[in-house]
Design brief:
With 578 residues, the chain is of the alpha/beta class. The protein has 19 helices and 27 strands.
């Protein structure tokens, strides 16, 4: 594609200050390290540097043209040879998005794009909407915090919303694969930085607005204005808005596009619940969607997930999805990675959740309070480093207020001292609640200790990191998965309980009782296999013992089940066995 052809297709205001416009463009990039020969490099500014600082590097890598802001023209002309075209624009972020959109063939015009923004609930709503569309028989893709998926092909996501080049490249791949819908989370950063410029959304969803990202936006008004951009005719043709949220009500008044309302507070909204029952098994509800009533059951937990179900049904209403597909799609989604994700099946309820804002923590704990019965709530929680310090005391206070026991620990401390972060948290906890608080800085040890404190019927929440499989300490990105660590903690607890019960003569040592105590499964013919004691070390196993296959830092006991049985173990407890 020729440079001038690309610029005209982008429908932007531009000035060609050097070059003929006939330069061949075979790629576009905003990262000079990704520039290839005959590429257009678009020098977007960062938080601390000008994009023009990387022009020379881009040219050295073979860029045939560069795009910069009008006010950087003179600076750039002195850095590039005459053979490289120089284009200037008044708004480089907007221009870059439209250029990427045009370069990849304007993909958002060839499929139906659903955008989701808000502080909390974006990922859950994205998965619910995707499930509804699939139940309707549509070919779908999804892009968000957890992953990017096209059809059945999935890869990890590095950002909630990728940069403009990667975003439109993703949409182009969706078109090439014959997909009909793409559901995408749209962060406030993405809207402020123009990452989705050029895209056209069939419908958009507003979930809520609470404290988050104030290290970037500085104040709530800037945060709201960034979110509200998605609900203009510049981006979206239609929208669904949460009218339980005060900022949702404000957005409702100011948007001029076609709009649908949802919420739990008023009966007159387009989507609202008629009745709902919440327990540890999930949500049983009848909801009104437009003029129809839908009775459904979901394995998702808590009132905030009822809100997410309403939001997703409202989006489905904007798209004309039949009620049967709405019901089937909601019921088909069992769980979402790191969103009140259940871990293990025992006499307790253990959950991992991404809640990392004061409001998200409050919503999750209130949801658990509704379903806990006579059990206690134990919460493991930390706060991220190099982020908004103001939310730390709020999150800690919320955790103590709505938990019977709150363990403060490390999250992703980044460059900060974890102890200092925890000190910031403690400042928010009133003296009368500090007896509920315990500090264990090491996150693994905090989770293990929390597991050791569980009694039958309790609920354990590990909050903050959700689906993440890493922990950022200093400049290092270390392997760490809350769900895996929690599973190990629960295994250790179960092993300890069995040993104690056996020693006290309160437990008949047969495999069926082990399964009942742990929620495990065994082949029927082995239900009454007995054992006289428990061992977690395959090297020291003795005939007649039960081998409990724990996973440690260096060794995974599941790999030694065969050896334990060969040495005379009568049975084994493990995660999987071939």
């Amino acid at each position: 594609m020729r440079l001038r052809t690309l610029l005209e297709a982008s429908e932007i205001d531009y000035t060609l200050v050097q070059g003929s416009g006939n330069e061949e463009i075979r790629g576009v990039a905003i990262d000079s390290r990704k520039v290839e020969p005959q590429c257009l490099f678009m020098g977007l500014p960062g938080t601390k540097v000008k994009g023009s600082q990387f022009v020379e590097d881009a040219v050295a890598r073979g860029a045939s043209a560069v795009l910069v802001s009008h006010d950087e023209a003179d600076e750039v002309l002195g850095k590039v040879p005459d053979s490289v075209a120089v284009v200037t624009v008044p708004d480089i972020r907007q221009a870059a998005g439209f250029i990427a959109h045009a370069f990849f063939g304007k993909p958002s015009e060839k499929l139906k794009l659903v955008g989701i923004t808000g502080t909390n609930g974006k990922t859950t709503c994205a998965f619910l909407i995707d499930s509804i569309l699939r139940a309707w028989g549509k070919k779908t893709g999804i892009s968000g915090t957890i992953c990017q998926r096209l059809g059945e092909k999935e890869c990890a996501a590095s950002l909630t919303t990728p940069d403009c080049v990667e975003f439109h490249r993703f949409l182009k791949r969706a078109v090439d694969m014959g997909l009909e819908y793409v559901v995408t989370e749209v962060s406030s950063h993405a809207l402020d930085q123009g990452r989705v410029e050029g895209a056209r959304f069939e419908t958009s969803l507003f979930t809520n607005l609470t404290r988050d990202h104030l290290d970037y936006h500085k104040d709530f008004e800037s945060y709201f204005q960034a979110k509200s951009l998605l609900f203009s005719s510049h981006y979206s043709m239609c929208c669904a808005i949460n009218l339980d949220d005060p900022y949702g009500k404000r957005l409702w008044e100011q948007t001029n596009i076609k709009k649908y309302s949802y919420g739990q507070g008023e009966r007159g909204l387009d989507v609202h619940p008629l009745e709902a029952r919440l327990d540890r098994n999930g949500i049983h509800a009848t909801i009104r969607v437009g003029h129809e009533e839908i009775s459904l059951k979901s394995s998702l937990l808590g009132r905030h997930n009822l809100q997410n179900i309403l939001a997703s049904a409202a989006v489905a209403l904007t798209l004309g999805v039949p009620s049967q597909a709405i019901k089937q799609g909601i019921e088909a989604l069992d769980s979402i990675p790191g969103r009140l994700e259940p871990v293990g099946t025992t006499d307790v309820t253990a959950l991992v959740d991404y809640a990392h804002t004061p409001d998200a923590v409050r919503n999750v704990l209130l949801a658990l309070s509704e379903i806990k019965g006579s059990g206690r709530i134990i919460t493991v929680i930390g706060c991220g480093g190099d982020r908004d310090r103001g939310k730390r005391p709020e999150m800690a206070a919320t955790a103590c207020r709505y938990s019977d026991l709150a363990i403060f620990t490390s999250d992703n401390p980044r460059s900060e001292d974890p102890a200092r972060i925890i000190d910031d948290m403690i400042q928010g906890v009133e003296q009368s609640l500090r007896a509920r608080m315990r500090v264990i800085e090491d996150r693994k040890e905090a989770i293990f200790w929390a597991c050791s404190q569980l009694r039958a019927g309790d609920l354990l929440l590990v909050a903050g990191k959700g689906h993440e499989d890493y922990q950022i300490i200093g400049q290092s990105r270390l392997s760490f998965d809350d769900s895996k660590v929690l599973a190990r903690g629960l295994e250790r607890r179960a092993s300890t309980l069995l040993k104690e019960a056996g020693a006290a003569g309160k437990f008949t040592p047969v495999l069926r009782n082990v399964c009942r105590a742990t929620g495990g499964k065994c082949h029927a013919r082995y239900e009454f296999v007995s054992f006289d004691s428990v061992s977690t070390d395959s090297r020291q196993i003795e005939p007649g013992q039960l081998f409990w296959a724990l996973k440690g830092e260096r060794f995974d006991g599941n790999k030694f089940v065969d050896k334990a049985l060969e040495k005379g173990a009568s049975c084994a407890v493990c995660r999987e066995f071939q």
